[in-house]
Amino acid sequence: MKLSHIGNTDLLQIHNLKINNNIIFAKCEFQNPSGSHKDRTFLHIINSLEKKSVIQPGMTLVDCSTGNGGAALAWIGREKGYKVKIFMPEGMTKERIDQIKKYGAELIETPKEQFLNGCVEAASKFCINNISTYYLDQAGSELNMEAWYQCGNEIVDQLKEKGVSPDYFVCSIGTGGTFSGITKVMKKAFPSLKAIGIEVDKSAPVYSKVNGLYFEHKPHNLMGLGAGLLSKNTDLSLIDEIKVIKGDAAWERMRSFIEEEGIGIGPTCGSNLLITERLMEKVNNKVIVTLFFDSAWKYQSRWNGIYPEYL
Ligand SMILES: Cc1ncc(COP(=O)(O)O)c(C=O)c1O
Known about the structure:
With about 300 residues, the protein is an alpha/beta fold. The protein has two domains: about 5-35 and about 145-305, Rossmann fold (3-Layer(aba) Sandwich), CATH 3.40.50.1100; about 40-145, Rossmann fold. Helices cover about 40% and strands about 15% of the residues. The protein is built from ten helices and ten strands. It has helices at about 40-50, 70-80, 95-100, 115-130, 145, 150-160, 175-190, 205-210, 245-260, 265-280, and strands at about 10-15, 25-30, 60-65, 85-90, 105-110, 135, 170, 195-200, 240-245, 285-290. Helix 1 packs across helix 2. The chain binds pyridoxal-5'-phosphate. The site of pyridoxal-5'-phosphate has 16 residues, from helix 2 and helix 7.
């Protein structure tokens, strides 16, 4: 596993998903070495801060995560000679906790009641009180969105190689870095592209804002989405439509897709698939691009999608 293996993931056409003559491609970010899209995010954030001499090896890098970002940072940080400390809400999957520890990072679990906001508070406090530490802040740092331009460029090149122009990009929003970075690049290359964002119904700040609704965070089972705040990395001007998804439906679609296709994807890939399929029912002869964030093995111990701490 090398840092040079991050990126250049496949753009997979899902031939068996045939609805109304539409074509669907999925960018396979689960192929990244630590098993998720967050490898790109943290490699870019760390490289950029090193170039600006803000951080240097030997320091302790800190961030908050429900698992994927923590694992990516733990691995990349170790490879580059940093100590890593991850703040994580209690009750995340055993596989992701074990992975972070296996890469040698220190893991601090914060109480479930405050979910990710509790992690942000604890991480900020730790960095204020300790020298030689740096809070990377994937939710607030615009380096997150920037990390995704490269993936956007890959998608554009892969589509051009196949000789197709996309009509839609469909992608779930957590920090929004993935959605916004890719959409920005794709819209530049294909100006008529429509971008559809997805949030979990129980914690949907963009959906609430767009529809003039009061936003309230409620516990849910789509870790990686619905952090409880609107991140700076979600560029509202890039969103053509925002949809919400029920957590259980996304888990169910993940399981059925794995059975149908034998491709090991995670629950938020299930959300992307479901919203893409709903779109395919309504349109004809369109090319739709979506994304598979992470790998099924990260959820093996919670296969029923139940997080007892977050019911
Ligand atoms: C499993 C999973 N899906 C989707 C996302 C959303 O990615 P982003 O934060 O770039 O919006 C995350 C983010 O942590 C995630 O872990």
